[in-house]
Amino acid sequence: METHDVTNQVPPLCGYNVFDASATIAESLARFDAGWAETALRTLGERAGSDEAIGLGFAANRNPPTLRAFDRFGQRVDEVEYHPAYHALMDVAVTNGLHASSWSDPKPGAQVARATGFFLWSQVDAGHGCPISMTHAAIPALRVQADLARTWEPSITARSYDPQLKPRAEKRGVLLGMAMTEKQGGSDVRANTTRATPTGGGGPGAEYALVGHKWFCSAPMGDAFLVLAQAPRGLSCFLLPRVLPDGTRNMFALQRLKDKLGNRSNASSEVEWSGTLAYLIGEEGRGIQTIVEMVNFTRLDCIIGSAAGMRQAVSQAAHHLAHRSAFGKLLIDQPLAQNVLADLEIEAEAAELTFMRLAQACDRAASDPREAAFKRIGTALGKYWVCKRAAPHAAEALECLGGNGYVEESIMPRLYREAPLNSLWEGSGNVNALDVMRILAKEATAIEAFHDEIRSAHGLDTRLDLAAARLREALHDPADRERRARRLVEQMALVLQGSLLVRFGDPAVADAFLASRLAGDWGQTFGTLPVDTPFAAIIERAAPQRRLLTPGR
Ligand SMILES: Cc1cc2nc3c(=O)[nH]c(=O)nc-3n(C[C@H](O)[C@H](O)[C@H](O)COP(=O)(O)OP(=O)(O)OC[C@H]3O[C@@H](n4cnc5c(N)ncnc54)[C@H](O)[C@@H]3O)c2cc1C
Question: Among 91, 146, 213, 286, which has the minimal tally of Cβ within 10 Å of its Cβ?
Answer without folding.
Answer: 146
